[in-house]
From TrEMBL:
PROSITE patterns membership: ABC_TRANSPORTER_1, ABC_TRANSPORTER_2
Species for this entry: Cliftonaea pectinata
NCBIfam families on file: sufC
Protein name as catalogued: Probable ATP-dependent transporter ycf16
InterPro entries in the cross-refs: AAA+_ATPase, ABC_transporter-like_ATP-bd, ABC_transporter-like_CS, FeS-cluster_ATPase_SufC, P-loop_NTPase
Stored Gene3D superfamilies: P-loop containing nucleotide triphosphate hydrolases (3.40.50.300)
ABC transporter domain ranges (all copies): 7-249
Keywords assigned by UniProt, alphabetized: ATP-binding, Chloroplast, Nucleotide-binding, Plastid
GO molecular function, one term: ATP binding
Length: 250
């Protein structure tokens, strides 16, 4: 079955501790598309990303989320990840005591197992991850360090891209992957994201600066305000926002 709709969100309402944060949001992302969501601080972008990924602190009070037509609104985060949703964090956490390569292998194997695919032993996994890490131009020494511990901002973001590449998800959501990066690191991350994209999957990029979109060309740019998408356009919107600020949208 060839399903074109990767992610479909219908009339989504979300609250956290009785405060409503997302108020009637609709979104359709088809196979092979890159979508960008922009918006002021506090407009609900990260909340949306976390809700799509199944973060337990956020309560969906109304509406539905579908992944390839499968209703995942109330599915656990782990299940969603196995079904093909990857979330790259705005602030990746440091986990001392857990080596990066062990973490990556665990994540990979648990997805493989759930999908009845072959799991890899440490040796075979090393070959796979070695190939992936070289492709994104990241030093292999990061594999043996503890997960994100002492990584610079740019290195943490690169490690998120490594995970994205390894898990090869249907939908990758990247929340402010560009924050804190200098221009070279930004270009490098953007190139890697472009290389990982293909016609079988989709990417949702969250950013509040236009500059990332100079390198990654989205098919659609959505502007979020107060928990809703208030405008959808092409990438020219991002340029106008950069010039005139978010008030331009009104
Ligand atoms: P953005 O990513 O667009 O800057 P967020 O989704 O992070 O916005 O936040 C949207 C609003 O929801 C903010 O007012 C924020 O304080 C609030 N919010 C998000 N998560 C929580 C939480 N766990 N508890 C209380 N308020 C939250
Ligand atoms: Mg945010």
């Amino acid at each position: 079955m060839n399903i074109q709709n990767i992610l479909e969100i219908k009339n989504l309402h979300v609250s956290v501790k009785d405060t409503s944060i997302i108020n009637g949001l609709n979104l359709l992302i088809k196979k092979g598309e890159i979508h960008a969501i922009m918006g002021k601080n506090g407009s609900g972008k990260s909340t949306l990303a976390k809700v799509i990924a199944g973060h337990p602190n956020y309560k969906v009070t109304k509406g539905n989320i579908f992944l390839c037509r499968d209703d995942i609104t109330h599915e656990e985060a782990e299940k969603r990840s196995h079904k093909g949703i990857f979330l790259g964090f705005q602030y990746p956490v440091e986990i001392p005591g857990v080596s990066n390569i062990d973490f990556l292998r665990l994540a990979y194997n648990s997805k493989q197992k759930e999908n009845h695919q072959k799991e890899l032993d440490p040796l075979l996994f090393f070959n796979l991850i070695n190939e992936k890490i070289k492709k994104i131009d990241m030093d292999t020494s990061f594999l043996n360090r503890n997960l994100n511990e002492g990584f610079s901002g740019g290195e943490k973001k690169k490690n998120e891209i490594l995970q994205m590449s390894l898990l090869n998800s249907k939908l990758s959501i990247l929340d402010e992957i560009d924050s804190g990066l200098d221009i070279d690191a930004l270009r490098n991350i953007a190139n890697n994201i472009n290389n990982l994209m293909n016609s079988d999957k989709s990417i949702l990029i969250i950013t509040h600066y236009q500059r990332l979109l100079d390198y990654i060309k989205p098919n659609y740019v959505h502007v979020m305000n107060k928990g809703k998408i208030v405008y959808t356009g092409n990438k020219e919107v991002a340029t106008e926002i950069e010039k005139h600020g978010y008030d331009y949208i009104k």
